[in-house]
Specification:
This protein is of the alpha/beta class and 220 residues long. The protein has 9 helices and 5 strands; from the N terminus they run H-E-H-E-H-E-H-E-H-E-H-H-H-H.
Length: 220
């Protein structure tokens, strides 16, 4: 059975991090457009070179970050990196910090300040804006940057996801199957993808077509 932890939007694209491959709808359109038009419009004062994308797990934050890395030649700063060096700052014009809620706050603040002072571009991601940073200086900066939300998937995105999931595995499903899944799958990306994997695995192992009765059997 596939490991749902490895899936990001779009599904199963084998590192082809391109704008044209990203599945977008109203639920992620603002973040998508910002990445697409980053060279024209990015942040706003006082941090006009910084943007924060937030959304639930498996919602496409990493994929959008990878797209932006390709577009801007950005440097991915690792959480366990000892320190962002002057050489890194000189070599790159753009930087990415993922899942900042899990970082040491002092490291986030250091990187943020250094990148901002050097007027370099910065993209940060987080799973939630509910995180309360203990460092007041960090909280004030995070609250002052442009924040782009990726929402739970709407019907349009769910339909595209389900269709792409099965097509990428050369599996055909009927419209009634997609409609049934729209009603019965959870709206959390990671749970939805995991269940699609369970359904597909069951169908392949038992050499059965993916039908509504099969899905009912798997989900019961």
């Amino acid at each position: 059975m596939p490991n749902s932890q490895q899936y990001i939007l779009p599904l199963f694209s084998n590192n082809l991090y391109a704008l044209d491959n990203f599945i977008n709808s109203l639920s992620n359109q603002v973040a998508y457009n910002s990445i697409k038009n980053w060279s024209v419009s990015w942040g706003s004062k006082p941090y006009e070179f910084t943007v924060l994308i937030y959304g639930p797990p498996s919602s496409g934050k990493t994929y959008l970050s990878k797209i932006w890395q390709n577009l801007s030649n950005a440097f991915f700063i690792k959480k366990d990196l000892d320190i962002l060096s002057a050489e890194d700052i000189m070599q790159y014009n753009a930087f990415i910090m993922e899942d900042i809620e899990f970082w040491d706050e002092r490291k986030v603040l250091h990187c943020f300040n250094l990148i901002s002072e050097c007027r370099k571009y910065l993209l940060m991601t987080t799973g939630s804006l509910a995180s309360n940073f203990a460092l007041q200086d960090l909280s004030s900066r995070i609250n002052a940057v442009v924040r782009l939300e990726i929402n739970q998937p709407d019907d349009e995105l769910m339909t595209k996801l389900i269709f792409k999931y099965f097509s990428d595995q050369s599996l055909k499903v009927s419209d009634c199957v997609i409609e049934y899944l729209l009603i019965n799958l959870p709206r959390q990306f990671d749970q939805m993808i995991k269940l699609l994997g369970v359904i597909t695995h069951f169908a392949l192992v038992h050499k059965r077509a993916i039908t509504v009765p099969l899905i009912k059997q798997v989900l019961k």
